[in-house]
DNA sequence: TAATTAATTGAACATTCATTTAATAGCGTA
DNA sequence: TACGCTATTAAATGAATGTTCAATTAATTA
């Protein structure tokens, strides 16, 4: 006892959330107890409750944090520049190591499972993807108008693009070794270009 | 007490697994306790342990059962018939209501999260998809040889096809209302055909 | 320095957890 | 009818669960 490391709520709360994340990643959502999180954070279980009220609220705060990292990724998608170059940057970013490593599969999948039961979580996931979807719609429209792609249905192309990228992230977790990641990304970019009907010399 | 409903292990075990599945779906993997499963199955918790040994083993048995339903789906994929018709049947099956409703998102996602930690589960998931992958490779090769599709790289096309279909199932859970499911499937089939470079009059 | 506020812990809470062991009840066979 | 097997439960286990409340310690302000 004694030797209390005193910190402000502003630094302590994120530290506890980080510990929560790590415990989930290592032991699974179903085994991530308040006690373990407190232990990992080097703190008394009471303090966890003191800051978050209940475990449930803590889960929701972590969900928000994780979804925010996705929102950050989306925010970095290109919004200007010449059409063909912009398209190329878009695809390169979606299928980059950075995006692939952005989130923990174990944590995210637990939250997606949770979203099927918890309306609050579901709403936030939905909202996140709606933003992504709207962004792609605008871009795909632009590309079509500029004549760098040829599609019949913008909505359909966007649905396919999102499905391909989400499915690809999923696919990688089970089928891609370290050595094959880059070539897989190339495959996906080629597929995306086919879906979009890219009109370009290099395809 | 009294009024024991006596059943054989052959009927009781599946009944308990079914109860387990339902509890997970309703309350989440993290809240599916042995006691709740027993309650749902109308049975004493001891009996659950008696049949499965430990909760962990019960989880593994349920994983096997769920994966088996996927294997059943894969088994129904077309393996003969004229190339173009076979391709059409393949796509229609992958993007059918039946496939979409085949499994519980909440349960499956919990298991996928689990697979990141549990090597046994991981191995089985991987194995399942390897079968799917091999099947598609054979078919895509065949379609290419028969000239109904035009692709540069079989491996790449298969990766894209799987990614698109898995991502699509995921996509549907958050973005598709009941009314838009059919049109979404149509969009995906069009995208798949573009990926495969289908050489046909109706595209 | 004294008073106030916020961070942190200690100890206890009632529940629930998965599991064990021993007892009981129903069925098939001899 | 008696026996043996298996299904099933009863009861109890210690550990772990999330949470409460009061006490204590450290920093901030007066």
From TrEMBL, chains A, B:
TM spans (from-to): none
Keyword annotations: DNA-binding
Cross-referenced SUPFAM superfamilies: Homeodomain-like (SSF46689), Tetracyclin repressor-like, C-terminal domain (SSF48498)
InterPro entries tied to this protein: Homeodomain-like_sf, HTH-type_TetR-like_transc_reg, HTH_TetR, IcaR_C, Tet_transcr_reg_TetR-rel_C_sf
Domain HTH tetR-type: 10-70
PROSITE patterns assigned to the protein according to its UniProt record, in alphabetical order: HTH_TETR_2
Pfam families to which the protein is assigned, alphabetical: TetR_C_37, TetR_N
Keyword DNA-binding: yes
GO MF entry, a single one: transcription cis-regulatory region binding
Annotation: DNA-binding region: 33-52
Matching PANTHER family: HTH-TYPE TRANSCRIPTIONAL REGULATOR PKSA, HTH-TYPE TRANSCRIPTIONAL REGULATOR RUTR
Quaternary structure, from the entry: Homodimer.
Function: Represses transcription of the icaADBC operon necessary for biofilm production.
Record's protein name: Biofilm operon icaADBC HTH-type negative transcriptional regulator IcaR
Organism classification: Bacteria, Pseudomonadati, Thermodesulfobacteriota, Desulfobulbia, Desulfobulbales
